[in-house]
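User: quick one, sequence for these tokens?
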């Protein structure tokens, strides 16, 4: 059945393609067959080449003719090359801020989940109890004291997120994208009475389809961090700091000839986080209000986008002295992006013996680097969408922490993000620690 549907979809696309190519004027950018940065006719050459109509157009007989009298000026680039801003912008200027925000939530979330699970295990030597109640000694990591009482843990998180702005054409600016991320964290920590001290290695990977420029944005982040937590009879405080590096690969559509313009760069990463929470217990139920702060800075290095040359035999002009298939690469300036989030949240937990289910609600106030578009080469009549600029959100989540025997502690967590401008996200994570 799926194969049949794909066949119908393919035939439909082919039919539509023939219909467009049979018109008196070409509509698809690729039919112009000339890169937006063709060395002789590209938009990088300035207004001299954009003062007349758009391009030569193809008649029903397949012959290209002048769209206007351009004896002294005119251009061969497609309309999208002239009238698009966001679509000619490299993804680092549009989505890198949102990716940084998603990354800091994943990186810090793994550590805070680990700390909560460690304290949730309580001071039971047998591991038969699990709760978020406030034990007097606050110890959750002793566990037979093999290898000095160390614990090794791992956490995995996955998120689907997207910008929900509409997309009608490349000439109508938007920063619509959709993507997903996956992150792994591995750590080792040790308790010193009421204190937990640990080291963590995090790996984060985001893959985005960037509809606004017909391309993609892929970013890998690796960080190394340290965290410290301390719990009294009622209060719990934890802080963390880390740094690392990132590889970024981008792709976007050449709006003149439909080829893919690729770029690669690196970035330096630093992050920090702090959290304070208090627990109030009645019987099996615990209410835990908290305030938290986390931030990440990403210093993206300058790089060059490689523009493929125009294909031999695809030029739509003949007998012109400027005929060329070569193109000009595009320099992308370095960019610093950041995301700073201040959180106020509340967690409600039940003590069910070996398991502790919970629900969690938080309000996040944030300052995240907003998208920035290149300017259109010349104005048109399109109504462009403004770049998204979110400054707050609500996060609703829940999960279960559990203990299996005396050495195995873990948990799972799922949730959604709402209230952020032009944005949707759902996430899930799971963690596991082994005590020695």
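Assistant:
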């Amino acid at each position: 059945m799926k194969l049949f549907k794909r066949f119908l979809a393919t035939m439909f696309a082919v039919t539509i393609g023939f219909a467009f190519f049979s018109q008196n004027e070409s509509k698809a950018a690729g039919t112009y067959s000339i890169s937006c940065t063709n060395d002789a006719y590209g938009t990088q050459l300035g207004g001299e080449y954009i003062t007349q109509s758009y391009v030569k157009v193809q008649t029903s007989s397949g012959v290209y003719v002048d769209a206007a009298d351009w004896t002294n000026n005119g251009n061969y680039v497609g309309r999208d090359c002239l009238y698009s801003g966001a679509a000619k912008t490299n993804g680092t200027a549009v989505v890198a801020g949102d990716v940084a925000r998603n990354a800091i939530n994943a990186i810090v979330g793994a550590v805070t989940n680990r700390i909560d699970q460690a304290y949730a295990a309580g001071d039971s030597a047998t591991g038969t109890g699990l709760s978020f109640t406030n034990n007097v000694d606050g110890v959750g990591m002793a566990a037979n004291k093999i290898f000095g009482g160390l614990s090794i843990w791992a956490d995995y998180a996955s998120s689907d997120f997207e910008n929900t702005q509409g997309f009608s054409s490349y000439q109508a600016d938007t920063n619509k994208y959709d993507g997903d991320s996956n992150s792994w964290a591995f750590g080792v920590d040790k308790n010193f009475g009421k204190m937990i001290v640990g080291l963590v290695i995090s790996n984060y990977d985001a893959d985005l389809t960037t509809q606004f420029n017909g391309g993609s944005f892929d970013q890998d982040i690796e960080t190394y961090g340290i965290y410290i937590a301390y719990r009294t009879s009622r209060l719990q405080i934890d802080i963390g700091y880390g740094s690392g590096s990132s590889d970024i690969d981008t792709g976007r559509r050449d709006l003149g000839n439909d080829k893919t313009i690729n770029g690669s760069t690196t970035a330096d990463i630093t992050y920090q986080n702090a959290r304070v929470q208090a627990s109030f217990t009645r019987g099996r139920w615990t209410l835990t209000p908290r305030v938290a702060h986390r931030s990440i800075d990403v210093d993206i290095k300058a790089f060059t986008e490689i523009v493929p040359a125009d294909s031999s035999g695809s030029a739509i002009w003949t007998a012109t002295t400027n005929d060329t298939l070569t193109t000009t690469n595009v320099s992308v300036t370095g960019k610093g992006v950041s995301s700073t989030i201040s959180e106020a949240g509340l967690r409600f937990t039940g003590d069910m013996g070996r398991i502790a289910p919970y629900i969690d609600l938080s309000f996040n106030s944030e300052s995240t680097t907003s998208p920035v578009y290149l300017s259109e080469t010349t104005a048109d009549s399109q109504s462009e969408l403004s770049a998204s600029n979110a400054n707050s959100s609500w996060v609703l989540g829940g999960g279960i922490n559990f203990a299996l025997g005396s050495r195995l502690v873990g948990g799972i967590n799922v949730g959604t993000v709402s209230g952020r401008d032009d944005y949707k996200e759902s996430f899930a994570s799971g963690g596991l620690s082994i005590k020695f």
